[in-house]
Amino acid sequence: MKPVLLRMQAFGAYASEQIIDFTRLGDKNFFLITGPTGSGKTTILDALTFALYGTASGRLRDGKSLRSDYAPVETRTLVEFTFTLGERKYCVSRSPEQEVAKQRGSGTRKLPAAASLVQLLTDGSLKPLAAKVDEVTRTVTSLLGFNADQFTQIVLLPQGEFRQFLLAESQDRKSILETIFNTVFYSRLENLLAEKAKALAADYETKKQQRAFWLEQQQITKEEELPAKLTALTAKLTVALTQKAQGQAKLDDANTKLTAAEILEGRFRENEAAAAALQTLTATLPELEKLQQQIKTAEAALTLKDSYRAAYDAYQQLKQNTSELETVAASLQKAKLEVEKFKQQIAGSLATFLPDVSARSSAPAAGTLSPAAATHTAPGETELFSLFAGSASQNPAGSSPQEALQSLEATISHLTTEAGKLAGVTEELERLAASLEDGVPCPVCGSLHHPHPATVTAEARAALQNDINLKTRAASRLKALQQHLFQAQTRETAVQSQSEALQKQQDKFKLKAQETQRLYQQELTASVFADTKSFLQAAKLSVSLAKLRQEVKHREAVYAAARDRANRAAAAIKDQVRPALAALRQQAQELARLQEAAVKEASILEAQQQSLTQAQKALAALQTQLAALDEAYQTSALLAETAKGNNAARISLSAFVLQTILDDVLLAANVRLETMSSGRYLLRRSEVLGDARKKSGLNLEVSDAYTGVARPVKTLSGGEIFLASLALALGLTDVVQSYAGGLRLDTILVDEGFGSLDPEALDAALAALTDLQANGRLVGIISHVAELEERIPTRLEIIPGEHGSRAEWII
């Protein structure tokens, strides 16, 4: 696995988006990640591990605590990691469970953890591989070949934690090596051998139980008793089979006779039933004759049906026409009364209105002042009304309603106009009259005396307006009455036309009714019916004529069939004697009981014989199988116990295989450890047997050249453990790639630990790492040791700030 691109957002020390492009390294495979303490160097390893597995690189941190404290609540924490595995490229993205700002309103909301994994194809398209958190983790584990703990012990070496592989127990180291070198097959083989031995033992015990079951079932203690028991049983079965065959022959003969007797008895009973059925139907023959007569009468009624229907329809037409004439006559009378009513109402209105108009026919022309006005004399109300009545209101007696209406509307218009003028004149006269003084000449007549000043009272004006209102209402009523009269006259004309049309139809319908009645009477006289009543009764039957014919046909067929059945039944028993059926049936039943007992006895003996034969075969087969199972179990059990480690060396098959692999790893690791420790230390596999209850074989110890004594690796100092762990990790990467089918470890990242080394050990460690990257592996070191910055020119510098850190390549 080689990193290509790492993108972090709101993650750890990085508040804003931070992209680390590893392709900028080009052909440089050795680089240093440097920066002040707390700036975020280890966060890069955390981001890689979190993207792949959803956990941090160290045991003291977890995924939920990796969100940046610098990031605002609206920024989502996200890590995206692109990497290669051989020729294939993958991209994994992951975000932890976190609180972010709500999209609407204030406050925050909790987002669940999310993850996705895709393969980046050569044509630029994406191939989704997983889209759920757990699914992504499982797929990544399958692709890389190890889980998160193993990843941090072999590829990514966190500060102080990658030594776990060095210090692990034998069983834990076995799990790691099995995953890396894909040797879990040998552990499965151990289990399969154990399961095979267990299955053989269980099968052997099952066969023994089956053997005991067969012996118990046959009530014997050993197989040798079976032949004698089978011979005695065969003799008894032969006798039982003979008795069974003889009894069956007797029973068959009795059943044959019984069957013949039952058939003959059935014929006698059929004869009785057929005769009874014929007798019952013979009693219904009068009813059949009555139905036949009804059919003849109904058929005769069909000949009169058309003439009767024609006469009946003509009569109904005449009756309907007469009814309609009566209805129309009533409507015509009502319309005439309504016309007369509106005429009288109009005459009454004219009688009320015309005298009033005539009384004013002598009034002067509109706008002419009376002599009283000229002499300042105030006229009375009647005189003042006459001044402005006008000649337009004249309507001599005898005028038509339309003429009276026109005259009335003209008078209303004239009075309205004059009322307006009178209002102006009155105001002027009143003003003039109010200004007159005795001894002062009148501006109109020049008189010095003013005994009667001109005035017009409010009552006169009101009277004039009232007259206008009365004439307006009279005109409206006259218009309404005229409209009602017109509508009534229209209805009268329409009803009159309808009446005349119906009257013309009346004569036509009378002639038709008379003619159809005459024709019907002629046909009725010539028919078999005495009168119309008898015809109508027959006509009712004609409605169901088809049903009557069907009924008669059915009854005739039933009677004929009953007659034929009775004849056939009588012929079937001719010259026959009724059998003694009860005695024959009793004899057959007794023989059947005896035969049933014989069959049962023979069946029991046959089943016993079959069971004995089956038991004999089964016991013989079981004996052979038990012998084979016993032999197979002895071999299988020995193999299973040996493979599981239950041997003198207490080493299982899988451990033995891993010992060989571990020896190769230690050989590669010691090449570097011997150099880094100046020839003092070598790692080796412990040959001392441990607790007999535990499986051993993968324990490690360190050989000290200074003392010549091998001791546990836990006794090394902190710096020495760092060098031994680094050498072991580097040796592991060498061996992994040399084994066919092993995993390809293209990257190793080391976090701190160099500060505990003296200058000589530091030189040796760097030399080992430099040699490792020369073979094409990508080697990264995280450290704040100043000397490393001088010796490793390619660096990724982590620069802290008030709002989070940022990373910059120095190539």
- Uncertain spans, ≥5 residues at pLDDT below 50? 356-398
Strand order of the largest sheet: 2-1-4-5-8-9
- Please tally the helical runs, counting DSSP H or I stretches of 4 or more residues: 19
Task: Please summarize the sheet with the most strands.
Answer: 6 strands, antiparallel
Span between N and C termini?
22 Å
Mean pLDDT: 80
Rounded radius of gyration (Å): 67 Å
Question: Can you describe this structure?
Answer:
The chain is an alpha+beta fold. It contains 19 helices and 17 strands. The strands form four sheets. Strands 2-1-4-5-8-9 form a six-stranded antiparallel beta sheet, covered by helices on one side. A six-stranded mixed beta sheet has the order 10-14-15-3-16-17, with helices on both faces. A three-stranded antiparallel beta sheet has the order 11-12-13. A hairpin with a 4-residue loop joins strand 12 and strand 13. Helix 8 (285-358) crosses helix 13 and helix 17 packs parallel to helix 18. The longest helix is centred in the middle third of the chain and has 74 residues, at 285-358. The chain is flat, with a radius of gyration of 67 Å. The two termini are 22 Å apart. Residues 356-398 have low confidence and may be disordered.
List its traits.
single chain, 811 residues, alpha+beta, 61% helix, flat
Architecture blueprint of SSEs:
Layout: E1 2-9, E2 18-21, E3 30-34, H1 41-53, E4 78-85, E5 88-95, E6 98-101, E7 108-111, E8 114-120, E9 126-130, H2 133-144, H3 148-154, E10 156-157, H4 164-167, H5 170-181, H6 184-217, H7 226-282, H8 285-358, H9 371-374, H10 381-387, H11 401-435, H12 458-526, H13 532-543, H14 545-572, H15 581-644, H16 653-676, E11 681-685, E12 700-704, E13 709-712, H17 718-738, E14 747-751, H18 759-773, E15 778-782, H19 786-791, E16 795-799, E17 806-810
Helix pairs in contact: 5-16, 6-15, 7-14, 7-15, 8-12, 8-13, 8-14, 10-12, 11-12, 16-17, 17-18
